[in-house]
């Protein structure tokens, strides 16, 4: 039946029209939303996996998904203590089972006691279970050398992403030249660009310096904000530390400079610190933005407005599926805080298992507790393995002509630069693809390795990269690195 | 048996000075006084302050487990085994639990509930949902590709809604929403940049949705905004009404019929053109796992090009909470007759007797009237308040039902949700109370309520 006919056809006297929701009538902001980490290359990878299952013959027997920071998917084992407490919370009858250690039971009882009806199946307060927020505050105080943290400033969330988007919703307003501008690094984790597109905010790019190990230069921040003031109202500065996709760990001096800059330019600071335990390089250390802020004295600590974000998806836990996270807000206007509570209440509350998990992360077994030894062993092993894989990755990639790789100082990814022959770039254009997508697609089809093209994160014009996770088990990672090396050489030759 | 469906709608962002536009809209409705006082009283009781009651009974949320109802063992055993697979090594857990946990773990990357899942949800679980829907709707096909699982149905509501709401300086996009309506829905709409166009449910006819009223509401939107969507809640929240009523108490036998089923039964072209989003959740019904945050949306007749963008939006939030996804699977595929866990699973958590009791009591006390509760787990009785009480409320700067609820809390320790939060016909007062609670608790609730109400009515007569 032709579309035309539908316009005339009547059912019960009601004419039938075309669809209400089409690309033309859709909220135009959504058209600009992209999220490369789960984008077209991943969809093709899933398709290939299906084909393999159905018996298709390929040059590989499995697809290695090195596109997403999902440690457990790559074989990392969950930390025993965390899962024991989660099991106890899920099915409290297990508290009678003597196979579970006392410290796990103690924590489960405490968490359950704080839940409505003593159950993780009850809604919690929208801001999160009070005793969990208190534990988070204590953890932050301990981490930051005693600088006080107020539980009222802690908001638990569904992963860090939820909290990040919530803050952006609060911050983005205005119209035309007054529209909120949000500064974000290039390259960046594409949640930011997606959220900014969806909210219709102005994205203000500041470029990290690839030649200086992806370092952040205040001069570049200043250039970006000054230029932006001509067409928008810059209000927010987002910084990811340790960085994603670049892995760089900011020095204390740099963090101070950024805070100073934020104060001078009257910017709200958003510090994404989800990889705070993932620091590998010699001479690098994690410094929380809050700690540095307070150490700069009251002139800064009582004026700079800031939100810091953390999550249970990364670090040594890798518990992505539980969607646990929090943000701590500093110097937020009390009236805005009241509105923030309302905003988070629309989704009722974050998943309670994730809140419980977060409580364990900030409240791990102490040296005098039965689970401590195993816990520390598991934690240390995970972080040590990641450090080793970071080093190995940088080393191998730098032996490949045409690939240059900055040291992976932290986080879970490598973001090497690839040199593509002009012929390949031309071929890509013909195929209607961005050159690094073309490259990654070929790698996927030929080797079954799924990476994310650098274009998904942002990069300087004319440069190409890919992001690969360092999460596969060491032996598998070695094979992956070899295959990429071989592929790159083949690819370069083919298009020379 | 009851299932609550929610539809979220958006509200437009206004230009608040320093904060995002969302904020001004959201600030309109909220009984801050009541929640603050409840928190305070709970603290005072903990500290040993003497009150006419030993604890606050919070029936303001739709939270069965929060109200003391125990979760289903099968659900919790499967979850525990999935999180800590060592439990599968012994025979302590029933066979069907172990089998289900094994099956689910097989579907988790790295056999871990800590891995991310596919954007729409674990495919095995999504497929299960489509089978559940087809079964429920007497064979009407349901396609996994049209289903998205999210951490709670509110989020699955917000995504498609954000697509149809256009934020423009020249016009507002509107969504028809019922009065009364679950407050989160209106908040969502406003938060996302839309306006709500109220259509009034007819209280005296069991909160009936009348088409003439829908038409009137649509007319009222002319020149004010561009209506693009209709939100319906079936069963209703807070009203508990089902769209079809039968005579007197045969409503007790009424069955849930989905909008999708009816749409399909109406045949083409309507069944192929009307765009529909249906929402469901593991927070309600028999399973009542609110805290696990498992919900889903099924999209029908949505333009395939638009579906790609829906996928993109969902993907930015990675995936739904895995415990929530598992809860959904256990909801759509409960133990079957013959399975070890079957009999325990089917112990009814709330009896018809309870429903009738609430209806009876609330309609027997002067100053109360209540429509039959057909579903949804809440009662939404009407308060017929004396003028003196209404004046006192005004003096105190509160809405009449809010005033009543604050006094109810102070004097009897009962926390309910004032009707004002759900919007209601001008000049009427209501409150919403959760009745998905243990029978003993319900008796206690009704006792406190009647006792307080009688005193209150006397005081202000």
TrEMBL record, chain A:
Q: What GO terms are given for molecular function?
A: L-alanine:2-oxoglutarate aminotransferase activity; pyridoxal phosphate binding
Q: What is its EC number?
A: 2.6.1.2
One biological process term from GO is:
L-alanine catabolic process
Q: Does the keyword NAD apply?
A: no
Q: Catalysed reaction(s)?
A: L-alanine + 2-oxoglutarate = pyruvate + L-glutamate
Sorted alphabetically, which keywords does the UniProt record give?
Aminotransferase, Pyridoxal phosphate, Transferase
Q: Which GO terms describe its cellular component?
A: cytoplasm
Coiled-coil intervals: none
Q: What does this protein do?
A: Catalyzes the reversible transamination between alanine and 2-oxoglutarate to form pyruvate and glutamate.
The source's domain of life comes to Eukaryota
Protein name (record): alanine transaminase
The entry assigns this protein to a family as follows:
Belongs to the class-I pyridoxal-phosphate-dependent aminotransferase family. Alanine aminotransferase subfamily.
Q: Subunit notes for this chain?
A: Homodimer.
Q: Which CDD domains match?
A: AAT_like
Lineage of this protein's species?
Answer: Eukaryota, Metazoa, Chordata, Craniata, Vertebrata
Q: What cofactors does the UniProt entry give for this protein?
A: pyridoxal 5'-phosphate
Pathway, per record: Amino-acid degradation; L-alanine degradation via transaminase pathway; pyruvate from L-alanine: step 1/1
Q: Which residues form the Aminotransferase class I/classII large domain?
A: 85-484
Catalytic class of the enzyme: transferase
UniProtKB/TrEMBL annotation, chain B:
What GO terms in the biological process aspect are recorded for it? L-alanine catabolic process
User: Does this entry carry the keyword Signal?
Assistant: no
What does this chain do?
A: Catalyzes the reversible transamination between alanine and 2-oxoglutarate to form pyruvate and glutamate. Participates in cellular nitrogen metabolism and also in liver gluconeogenesis starting with precursors transported from skeletal muscles.
This protein is called Alanine aminotransferase 1
Q: Which gene encodes it?
A: LOC115437373
GO MF term (any one): L-alanine:2-oxoglutarate aminotransferase activity
The main enzyme category here is transferase
The record's catalysed reaction(s) read:
L-alanine + 2-oxoglutarate = pyruvate + L-glutamate
Aminotransferase class I/classII large domain boundaries: 87-245, 270-449
Chief localization: cytoplasm
Which cofactor is essential here? pyridoxal 5'-phosphate
The species this protein was found in: Sphaeramia orbicularis (orbiculate cardinalfish)
Assembly, per entry: Homodimer.
- Keyword flag Phosphoprotein: yes
Q: Which Gene3D superfamilies does its entry note?
A: 1.10.287.1970, Aspartate Aminotransferase, domain 1, Type I PLP-dependent aspartate aminotransferase-like (Major domain)
User: Per the record, GO CC terms?
Assistant: cytoplasm
Q: In which pathway does it act?
A: Amino-acid degradation; L-alanine degradation via transaminase pathway; pyruvate from L-alanine: step 1/1
Q: Which InterPro entries match?
A: ALAT1/2-like, Aminotransferase_I/II_large, PyrdxlP-dep_Trfase, PyrdxlP-dep_Trfase_major, PyrdxlP-dep_Trfase_small
Its EC number is 2.6.1.2
Keywords of this protein's UniProt record, alphabetized? Acetylation, Aminotransferase, Cytoplasm, Phosphoprotein, Pyridoxal phosphate, Transferase
């Amino acid at each position: 039946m032709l579309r035309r006919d539908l316009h005339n056809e009547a059912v019960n006297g009601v004419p039938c029209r075309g669809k209400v929701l089409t690309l033309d009538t859709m909220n135009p902001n959504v058209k600009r939303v992209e999220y490369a980490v789960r984008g077209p290359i991943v969809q093709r990878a899933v398709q290939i996996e299906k084909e393999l299952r159905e018996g298709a013959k390929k040059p590989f027997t499995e697809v290695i998904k090195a596109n997403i920071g999902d440690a457990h998917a790559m074989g990392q084992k969950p930390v025993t203590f965390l899962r024991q407490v989660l099991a106890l919370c899920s099915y409290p009858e297990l508290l009678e089972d003597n196979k579970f250690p006392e410290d796990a039971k103690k924590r489960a009882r405490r968490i359950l006691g704080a839940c409505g009806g003593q159950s993780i199946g009850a809604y919690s307060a929208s801001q999160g279970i009070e005793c969990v927020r208190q534990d988070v505050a204590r953890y932050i105080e301990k981490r930051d050398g005693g600088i006080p943290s107020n539980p009222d400033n802690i908001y638990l969330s569904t992963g860090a992403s939820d909290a990040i988007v919530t803050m952006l919703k609060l911050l983005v307003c205005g119209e035309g030249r007054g529209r909120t501008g949000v500064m974000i690094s290039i390259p960046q984790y594409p949640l930011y660009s997606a959220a900014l597109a969806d909210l219709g905010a102005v994205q203000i790019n500041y470029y990290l310096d690839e030649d200086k190990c992806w370092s952040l230069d205040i001069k570049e921040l200043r250039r970006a904000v000054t230029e932006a003031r001509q067409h928008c109202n810059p209000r927010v500065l987002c910084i990811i530390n340790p960085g994603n996709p670049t892995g760089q760990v900011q020095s204390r001096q740099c963090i101070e400079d950024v805070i100073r800059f934020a104060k001078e330019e009257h910017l709200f600071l958003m510090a994404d610190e989800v990889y705070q335990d993932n620091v590998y390089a010699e001479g690098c250390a994690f410094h929380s933005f809050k700690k540095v802020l307070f150490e700069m004295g009251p002139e800064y600590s009582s004026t700079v407005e800031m939100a810091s974000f953390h999550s249970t998806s990364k670090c040594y836990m890798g518990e992505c599926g539980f969607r646990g996270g929090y943000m701590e807000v500093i110097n937020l206007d009390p009236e805005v805080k009241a509105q923030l509570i309302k905003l988070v209440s629309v989704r009722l509350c974050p998943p309670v298992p994730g809140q419980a998990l977060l409580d364990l992360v900030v409240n791990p077994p102490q040296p005098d507790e039965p689970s401590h030894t195993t816990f520390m062993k598991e934690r240390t092993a995970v972080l040590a393995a990641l450090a080793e894989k970071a080093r190995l990755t940088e080393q191998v990639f730098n032996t490949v002509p045409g690939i240059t790789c900055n040291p992976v100082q932290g986080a879970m990814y490598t973001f090497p630069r690839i040199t593509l022959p002009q012929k390949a770039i031309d071929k890509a254009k013909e195929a209607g693809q961005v050159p690094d997508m073309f490259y990654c697609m070929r790698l996927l089809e030929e080797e079954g390795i799924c990476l994310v093209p650098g274009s998904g994160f942002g990069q300087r014009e004319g440069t190409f990269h890919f992001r690969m996770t360092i999460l596969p088990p060491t032996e598998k990672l070695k094979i992956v690195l070899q295959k990429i090396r071989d592929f790159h050489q083949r690819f370069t030759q083919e298009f020379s | 048996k009851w299932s609550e469906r929610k539809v979220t709608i958006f509200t437009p962002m206004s230009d608040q000075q320093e904060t995002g536009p969302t904020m001004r809209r959201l600030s309109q409705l909220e009984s801050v006084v009541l929640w603050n006082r409840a928190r305070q009283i709970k603290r005072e009781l903990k500290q040993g302050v003497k009150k006419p009651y030993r604890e606050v009974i919070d029936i303001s949320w739709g939270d069965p487990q929060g109200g003391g109802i125990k979760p289903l063992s099968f659900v919790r055993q499967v979850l525990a085994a999935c999180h800590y697979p060592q439990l599968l090594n012994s025979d302590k857990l029933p066979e069907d639990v172990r089998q289900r946990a094994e099956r689910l773990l097989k579907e988790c990357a790295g056999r871990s509930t800590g891995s991310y899942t596919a954007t729409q949800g674990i495919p095995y679980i999504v497929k299960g949902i489509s089978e559940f829907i087809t079964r429920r709707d007497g064979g009407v096909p349901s396609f996994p590709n049209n289903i998205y699982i999210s951490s709670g149905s509110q989020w699955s509501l917000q995504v498609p809604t954000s697509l149809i709401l256009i934020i423009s300086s020249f016009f507002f996009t509107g969504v028809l929403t019922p009065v009364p309506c679950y407050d989160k829905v209106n908040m969502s709409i406003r938060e996302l940049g839309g306006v709500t166009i109220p259509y009034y449910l007819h209280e005296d006819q069991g909160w009936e949705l009348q088409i003439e009223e829908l038409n009137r509401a649509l007319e009222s939107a002319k020149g004010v905004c561009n209506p693009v969507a209709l939100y319906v809640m079936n069963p209703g929240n807070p009203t508990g009404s089902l769209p079809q009523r039968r005579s007197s108490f045969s409503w007790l036998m009424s069955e849930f019929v989905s909008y999708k089923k009816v749409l399909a039964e109406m045949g083409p072209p309507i069944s192929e053109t009307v765009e529909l989003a249906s929402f469901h959740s593991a927070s309600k019904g028999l399973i009542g796992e609110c805290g696990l945050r498992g919900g889903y949306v099924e999209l029908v007749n949505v333009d395939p090009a638009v579906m790609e963008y829906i996928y993109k939006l969902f993907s930015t939030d990675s995936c739904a909470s895995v415990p929530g996804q598992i809860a959904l699977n256990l909801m759509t595929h409960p133990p079957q007759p013959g399975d070890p866990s079957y009999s325990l699973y089917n112990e009814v958590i709330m009896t018809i007797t309870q429903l009738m009791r609430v209806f009876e009591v609330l309609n027997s006390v002067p100053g109360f009237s209540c429509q039959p509760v057909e579903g949804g787990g809440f009662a939404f009785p009407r308060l017929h308040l004396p003028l003196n009480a209404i004046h006192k409320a005004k003096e105190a700067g509160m809405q009449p039902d809010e005033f009543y609820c604050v006094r109810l809390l102070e004097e009897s320790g009962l926390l309910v949700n004032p009707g004002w939060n759900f919007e209601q016909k001008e000049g009427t007062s209501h409150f919403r109370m959760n009745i998905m609670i243990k029978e003993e608790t319900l008796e206690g609730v009704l006792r406190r309520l009647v006792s307080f109400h009688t005193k209150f009515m006397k005081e202000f007569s």
